[in-house]
Specification:
The protein is of the alpha/beta class. The protein has three domains: 128 residues, Rossmann fold (3-Layer(aba) Sandwich); 114 residues, Serine Threonine Protein Phosphatase 5, Tetratricopeptide repeat (Alpha Horseshoe); 191 residues, DNA Cyclobutane Dipyrimidine Photolyase, subunit A, domain 3 (Orthogonal Bundle), CATH 1.10.579.10. It has 22 helices and five strands. Strands 3-2-1-4-5 form a five-stranded parallel sheet, sandwiched between helices. The longest helix has 26 residues. The protein is globular, with a radius of gyration of 24 Å. The mean pLDDT is 96. The structure holds flavin-adenine dinucleotide (FAD). The site of flavin-adenine dinucleotide has 27 residues, from helix 10, helix 12, helix 15 and helix 17.
Length: 488
Amino acid sequence: MREKINIVWYKKDLRITDHRPLFEASRLGSVLCVYFFEPEIMSGDDYHISHLKFAKESLEDLNRELSFVNGRLLILHCSAINGFQRLLKKFDIQKVFSHEETGNHLSYKRDIAMKNWFLHQKIQWIEYPSNGIMRGLKNRRNWFSCWQKYMRSSLVKTPMKLVAPSDHLKNDPIKLTPNLRNHSDRNYRQKGGRSLALKYLRSFLSVRGSKYLKGISSPSTSRKACGRISPYLAFGSLSLREVYQQVESLQNNEQHQDFYWKKSLSAFKSRLRWRSHFIQKLESQPGMELQNMNPGFNGMRSEEPNWKLLDLWQEGRTGYPIIDASMICLKETGWINFRMRAMLVSFVSYHLWQHWREPANILARLFLDYEPGIHYPQIQIQSGVTGINTIRMYSPLKQATEQDPHGDFIKTYIPALKNLPPPFIHDPSQLTKIDEIQFNFKPGADYPHPCVDHEFVYNHAKDIIYQWREKEKVKQHAQSILKRLVCR
Ligand SMILES: Cc1cc2nc3c(=O)[nH]c(=O)nc-3n(C[C@H](O)[C@H](O)[C@H](O)COP(=O)(O)OP(=O)(O)OC[C@H]3O[C@@H](n4cnc5c(N)ncnc54)[C@H](O)[C@@H]3O)c2cc1C
């Protein structure tokens, strides 16, 4: 006879704290925790080997945590459906518990297929809301008050002791899918796991956070001043609710009452809400990963990528130092601050006039914290195709002089420019022939010439985008987006 068990299906929630599926399963008897490295998901255009490695590190930590409460984590390398079929041969599966996932179209399709499969097998699949996201929401009326109520509600208890199945299955070895074979991991990325997640959070809330508001916009200062918890939230090593509650408790703490702490904590807390606000958009309109949120903009940019331009952008060879340094920084570390992300998308969308689809994939692979629900809405906002947000076209030179006045960030990632002082480090095309001799620098040979003429492409893009925004079709769709997706 097959052993009766319940399963906790781990996805993007790699922790045991504040984990309702684990808690509920633990009350019913024997529990097996499983995680699948799914080849279909790993083959996605948005997946990178750094995501795989980060997941592995997070799972090692999860395994350690589970072992403290006698839990068992099984890691399989197969599609979810094959995995459950394999488990069904060994076990009499009673119920499967998991968090709802607001992921990319591959995980969305997978979940629909699994729903049917579980139904067919007469296995009850119980999904719990994740991170304050509400499934099946028709509009955003009362969204904020419901969200806040959830964030302020008690954390789910961590089970003290689990009953593990007696049958021991072995983990699968994880093989690379063909797309990952030519990827290399990021040399200086954050490492995965809850212990590190807690370290980042603690150091932010006790020391680093006081400089948050002042440091958030510069690519250099933001590396310390920002929370840097995004990959841990994306993989679920931290629950959003636990972070939110820690912040609220500090807002009443004596040591955090000075002007900077108060402002910083409040700004940080808003961003935790933005996180859910954006993910809720993808939850309510899953198509936005593949199509313009506002179809009135269809046809404005060609969907055919210009790979010559895109390659310059993704390889950090546009000839615009702040753009190139940001890209190289992403390649090496997997993280850059919000302002530089927005600027990179603005540049590829307006200066290079590329459709957002391919850049979205390229950046998804570069961002260690890739979270589809934040990523796609942000990409669409920054490329100007929502019709409901202010158009933000960034000037690379202005950003460089304001956010990296001495060129320290640029020097770190583009050593070829390290001997140029401002303003040349921000714009080497300003060097005269005499300057070139003085600084022993040859534009075009030591560093590429700008790939496009800023004044020309910027003004051209501005004319087009503002013309399109005035179209009746765009305005009509904007109205319906406002009704559905915007909070009141
Ligand atoms: C084009 C573009 C794509 C982006 N893609 C992602 C993505 O895939 N994953 C991701 O986590 N963030 C994304 N962001 C938002 C933001 O840049 C990152 O959340 C932030 O830089 C993460 O660093 P941090 O943890 O130090 O953030 P902090 O500033 O310390 O903020 C704390 C947390 O709040 C949330 N948050 C912060 N800013 C935003 C925001 N603008 N919108 C929604 N939530 C926010 C994040 O979960 C973040 O971890 C994107 C921004 C842009 C412009």
